[in-house]
């Protein structure tokens, strides 16, 4: 589903009925549409083409209410969770032994993130409540800059408008993963990523490399979930893959076609979230989400400019570490630009933990 979810998307009854039960012919057609959108975006040289192209194509079909087989576009989240470990082992493949010495320099920006998260959350909450379009509880959990599944669940338990809350969180994620790569493409002067949507360098894969990477993906995801790590389905593979690469056991990474396919699955799973929602509510949620995105992305810009000299990282890397998008999506951008992917990953993991913790604390404060 997104960066900040755990693999087991524990649907509440209302969310289950809202997103629907899979109709497999429709699922197949939805993925065909997602791949078509990805290839069109690639031909147009859009940033992260396979991810954004599939998201926009499927999202547009969902909003338009298209039902070619009698059902709205569908993409089971379990399929997405099966491919996310592929992104995890690719991110871990960027690890090198010298990264240990660099980690000490991340402490100032990690500390700043502890200020950034509650600050932008509070400002976004105050901004949305001032519009009078949503109640305080929905605004509180809808402006959390991370932890989509957790905040939706907490918000529903607190009596929030769960449909609007889910939409605000989905749009927070989608706006960020659309706007950030577009901005980077403008700064770079070319589309972010290769034909597959992310450029990942690695040695040719041999049978041993395939076995090691498969082990890192499968066991990493299982361990990450069993230990209840934040975004465990991607963090587990990242950690095992990073350990394997730092130990010199492998230098391989997943091939470009596999990363491209994984991005289509991820983009499609995001696009179907618009299915069945009243267009009027979508427009209201979109306006509110844009306002909140202005706070979070604007705050990330300010913090990155101030912190870059202290963190010892480029402004772009610090901004990417603070941007409130998904760990997977922001990681792909960092990979394509050959930034310090583990620096970005470490910050997004802390962002998820802080976002959920702050939302829970704020929720207790407003009763």
TrEMBL record:
The chain crosses the membrane at residues 21-40, 46-67, 79-97, 103-123, 170-187, 207-227, 234-250, 256-276, 288-311, 317-335. InterPro entries: AbrB_fam. It holds the Pfam family AbrB. Keywords: Membrane, Transmembrane, Transmembrane helix. It comes from the Bacteria. PANTHER family: REGULATOR ABRB-RELATED. This is AbrB family transcriptional regulator. It comes from Albidovulum litorale.
């Amino acid at each position: 589903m997104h960066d900040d979810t755990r693999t087991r998307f524990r649907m509440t009854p209302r969310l289950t009925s809202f997103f629907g039960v899979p109709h497999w012919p429709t699922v197949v057609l939805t993925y065909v549409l997602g791949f078509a959108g990805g290839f069109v975006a690639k031909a147009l040289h859009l940033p992260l083409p396979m991810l954004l192209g599939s998201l926009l194509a499927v999202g547009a079909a969902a909003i338009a209410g298209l039902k070619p087989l009698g059902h709205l576009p569908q993409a089971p989240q379990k399929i997405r969770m099966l491919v996310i470990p592929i992104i995890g082992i690719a991110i871990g493949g960027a690890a090198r032994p010298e990264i240990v010495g660099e980690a000490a320099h991340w402490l100032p920006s990690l500390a700043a993130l502890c200020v950034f998260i509650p600050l932008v959350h509070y400002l976004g909450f105050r901004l949305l409540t001032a519009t009078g379009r949503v109640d305080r509880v929905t605004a509180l959990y809808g402006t959390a800059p991370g932890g989509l599944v957790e905040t939706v669940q907490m918000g529903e338990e607190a009596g929030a408008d769960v449909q609007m809350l889910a939409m605000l969180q989905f749009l927070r994620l989608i706006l960020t993963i659309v706007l950030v790569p577009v901005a980077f493409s403008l700064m770079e002067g070319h589309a972010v990523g290769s034909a597959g949507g992310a450029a990942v360098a690695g040695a040719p894969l041999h049978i041993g490399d395939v076995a090691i990477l498969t082990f890192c993906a499968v066991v990493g995801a299982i361990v990450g979930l069993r230990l209840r790590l934040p975004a465990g389905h991607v963090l587990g593979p990242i950690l095992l893959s990073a350990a394997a690469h730092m130990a010199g056991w492998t230098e391989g990474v997943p091939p470009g076609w596999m990363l491209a396919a994984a991005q289509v699955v991820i983009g499609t799973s995001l696009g179907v979230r618009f299915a069945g929602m009243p267009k009027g509510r979508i427009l209201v949620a979109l306006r509110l989400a844009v306002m909140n995105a202005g706070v979070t992305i604007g705050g990330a810009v300010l913090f990155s400019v101030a912190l870059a000299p202290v963190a010892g990282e480029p402004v772009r890397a610090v901004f990417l570490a603070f941007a409130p998008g998904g760990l997977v999506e922001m990681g792909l951008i960092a990979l394509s630009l050959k930034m310090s992917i583990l620096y970005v990953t470490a910050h997004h993991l802390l962002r998820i933990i802080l976002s959920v913790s702050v939302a829970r604390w704020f929720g207790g404060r407003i009763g």
